[in-house]
Amino acid sequence: MPKWFTPVAFICAAMFAFSPLVIANADYESTMGLVQKIFYYHMPSAWMFLVAAMVCGVASIRYLVSGDLRHDRTALAAGELLVVFGLLTLVTGPLWARKAWGTFWIWDARTTSSLVSWMIGCAYLILRRYGGPGSEKLAAALALFGMANVPFIYISVNYWRTIHPATSVVPKLPFTMGLPLWYCVISFSLLFYLLLKMRVRLEEQRATLDSLYLSLDEQH
Amino acid sequence: MIRVAWLILRKDLTVEVRSREIVYTTLFFAVSCVLVFAFALVREGRGPEDGAAGILWIAVMFAGNLALGRTFERERQSETLRALLLAPASRPAVYVGKLLGILVLLFGAELLLIPLVALLFQARLLVHPFWLIAIMATGTVGFAAVGTLFAAMLVRARSRDVLLPVLLYPITVPVIIAGVRGTATLLQPELDAGIIRFWLALLVTFDVVFVTLALWTFEVVMTD
Amino acid sequence: MTPSTPPGSSASLGAGLDFDHVSVDDVSRHFGRRRAVARVSFVAARGNIIGLLGPNGAGKSTLLAMLATLLRPSAGSIRYGAMQADDAPPALRGRIGVLGHDLFLYPELTARENLAFFAGLYGHRDADGAARAALPRAGLADRGDDLVAGFSRGMRQRVALERALIHDPRLVLLDEPFTGLDEASTSALIARLRGLRESGAAIVLATHDLDIADGLLDEAIFLRDGRMVESLSRPEGLRAAYRRAMTGPIRS
After folding, report:
1. What is the pLDDT of residues B127-156, one digit of tens each?
2. Does C12 map to a domain?
3. Of B4, B18, B78, which has the smallest distance from its Cβ to C105's Cβ?
């Protein structure tokens, strides 16, 4: 691991440890009360979910074009983070929604698109785990298709919803981008980057181990 | 390229006509699917509102999944897919050939399913035949385009039977939504052409984008 | 049963991509941690029959797959004449004929339909004619309209061989072609291979059937665990050579 990894990891951990304090001191949102504070974890999770999806998609394309395994490793790491952060988003969201608006789930464009994209991410991991050898290219194609699909999913769900008006109205989030939000965004971004780096490194080491194993075989 | 695709299509049709295995099993499965839905959802002789459109598309997608799996399983058995890849034919041509074969099969299934669903669920599906054909055709092409690519790529993978639906259904969500909503609109008493045109446009765009992507990735993915 | 080269077929298939030898340079291939082929080098020239000999799992099939352009080597390179395998256009595959372990035949089609399909796929302008001409070479002129599903292993093998050769390939790859064949079919196959050698094809043959290969090969390459342990020109007494190669230390 590069030298800066451990100190940065400590900083990230510290930031997370302090985040409840920062969040508690944030402005109290009048309409939703205390529950609104979930937003400070929910929003950055959602952004990291999106970033992970883009990283996975771009890395997959680069892998398909060049065949360089480094991109495949990045895609795998990003895929795992996609599922993790997606899960976080999909859990914190309904928790918030339940308290704030009375229902756990709302079939609006954004939430449904996120769910479908997350499922594609899960399918990606299932394929990599159970597809057997040689499934890297197929997984990359899946990621590519998933990424290309995002506008279609969004548009189709959006139009689907407008025909059947939602029973409750989900307000746009009119929060000012204050300090607590940026603090959490930075914490989550750091976490994302650290996890990505660590996971890619793990895969690199596995590949190195494989090639060592192979070359050992050569020198009888 | 077209010549090769045509050769493959003709070969697939000949094989299928001889054995009729996939045709019979797929059609039978599709019909059973619809029946199961009928038993599950029809109450007091009336199906659920708008249900017919959803049931039709679900039956098509399940049957399509089955047909895709069987078609490529057959290629796998004599390693004939490998033989196709060994030929100097361009890989996209092989893809197109297989895609056309699947489409013929699925369109055949739809010819059977549409009257059946209309009958069992008292849905007036056949009132606007041209719109119906357009929606069914574009939706089926989208589903089959992605499905053929995935099924071909999964031929060498483990757990390929269960992996195909796992991969296919999330990616074809827009097709399901557009297909079902478009078909359901046709069932309304007054036809709203604007809505249908929107869904049709979405499906056509999906088809163009994903067939292009499939043509490009097929080459890359089938070489090891 | 010495066949003649089908007249004019080379021309009709666009013989621009010809080569007179295939060189395998230090080729390796691994699947994850499993090494299938390790640093194998040899040259297969026109008018030669090269034998890849070794037990199961020695890497013969993998090597053939790489020669057929189905797999890419993890290291090293394969050249067809002056052309690198990576730079080769799809048309190169039209100069390679493969008879695999699985015979690549559609059981639901007749022998003639199988041959015609592949002839068309490989760019024959008269696919049906080529199929009809190939049937007697397989000794199946009267069984052309029977479904392949009803054929014995030997008959299927003969159809598959004709299928592999229908486009007059320059490089012929055969993976365990003698498996399950009776005496008569084996001699017929050997005669066919000798005939192909006369007409200038380069033949690479993988087998663990040493008695049959004895006297047939121009060069024998012994593979063990993916490694090339020995290579002999004009080998005689293959059994003894094989035993020596498989049990002795690895001579690089």
Report:
1. 778 888 999 999 999 999 999 999 988 887
2. no
3. B78
